[in-house]
Automatic annotation (TrEMBL):
<dbReference type="InterPro" id="IPR012336">
    <property type="entry name" value="Thioredoxin-like_fold"/>
</dbReference>
<protein>
    <submittedName>
        <fullName>NXNL1 protein</fullName>
    </submittedName>
</protein>
<dbReference type="InterPro" id="IPR029520">
    <property type="entry name" value="RdCVF"/>
</dbReference>
<dbReference type="GO" id="GO:0005739">
    <property type="term" value="C:mitochondrion"/>
</dbReference>
<dbReference type="InterPro" id="IPR036249">
    <property type="entry name" value="Thioredoxin-like_sf"/>
</dbReference>
<dbReference type="Pfam" id="PF13905">
    <property type="entry name" value="Thioredoxin_8"/>
</dbReference>
<dbReference type="GO" id="GO:0045494">
    <property type="term" value="P:photoreceptor cell maintenance"/>
</dbReference>
<feature type="domain" description="Thioredoxin">
    <location>
        <begin position="1"/>
        <end position="142"/>
    </location>
</feature>
<dbReference type="InterPro" id="IPR013766">
    <property type="entry name" value="Thioredoxin_domain"/>
</dbReference>
Length: 206
């Protein structure tokens, strides 16, 4: 998914930090269902929907509600009139949200690419950038967090259990199949070690 934002800059919510390196974007977005939230703080429908989306996101990612955060990311693409409006809106939203910087022309590129003509709009994407749902606003309103399971199945995410043995600081996967390959490699090494131990024990017995 980071490929969608290659060469672009995203902002970390409620901080001045930019998330722009390939590694940072990979850690934030790869192997996740990604929501692109197109909205404006001044839009009445957005003001009504945004608290629902915030609750939706927290129910799936906050440790207060779930033992393990769902593989879900969100990038806010604003139509706010001023940078202050965008900043004030994001301050009231989850810290894990990312945002396209105010005034960045990339926002218009995303609107055209995903045919967003009105707000609020939530485009749901697979890790490879393919669209799962063109606008999930109604689905989120109707089903709440239950709709994530459908998206997860459509996205064919790699279970993060494969990644638990990895050092997060060295997590620089080149593809979503890397964890499977690494797991197989570790299993093969364990088998070789056990085989060698049995051979050595056999030599000692003889």
């Amino acid at each position: 998914m980071a490929s969608l934002f290659t060469g672009k800059v995203l902002m970390a919510n409620r901080e001045e930090d930019e998330v722009e390196t390939e590694r940072e974007l990979s850690r934030a977005l790869d192997n996740k269902v990604l929501l692109l939230y197109f909205a404006s703080a001044r839009c009445p429908r957005c003001r009504s929907f945004s608290p629902l989306l915030k609750e939706f996101f927290l129910r799936l990612t906050d440790e207060f509600y779930v033992e393990r955060a769902s593989q879900l990311g969100l990038v806010y693409v604003s139509r706010d009139e001023t940078e202050e409006q965008q900043r004030d809106f994001l301050r009231s939203m989850p810290k894990r949200w990312l945002a396209v910087p105010f005034g960045d022309a990339f926002k218009r590129e995303l609107e055209l690419r995903f045919a967003v003509s009105e707000v609020p709009a939530v485009v749901v994407l697979k890790p490879n950038g393919e669209v799962i749902v063109g606008n999930a606003v109604e689905e989120i309103q109707r089903m709440g967090p239950a709709c994530f399971q459908n998206w997860q199945e459509a996205a064919e995410l790699v279970d993060r259990n494969f990644l638990l043995a990895e050092d997060p600081e060295d997590w620089t996967r080149r593809s979503i199949t890397d964890p499977i390959r690494r797991l197989k490699y570790k299993l093969d090494k364990k088998r070789e070690a056990k085989k060698k131990e049995r051979e050595e024990e056999g030599e000692e017995l003889s």
